[in-house]
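Subject: design request, 53 residues
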């Protein structure tokens, strides 16, 4: 009885950690995309400012 409960708890813990890792990976991807967009926008704005000069 006790072994079954511990096994169920272990599976739940594993899935929770797996979800956490997945969330972190998705967050990293979003962060990379956001940084890329910011860099692109800053370069674009610099070109707009520098073009008349």
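Subject: RE: design request

Done. Sequence follows.
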């Amino acid at each position: 009885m006790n072994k079954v409960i511990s096994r169920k708890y272990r599976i739940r813990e594993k899935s929770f950690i797996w979800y956490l890792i997945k969330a972190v990976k998705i967050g990293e991807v979003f962060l990379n995309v956001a940084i890329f967009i910011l860099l692109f926008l800053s370069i674009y704005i610099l070109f707009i400012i520098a073009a008349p000069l």
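The mean pLDDT is 85.
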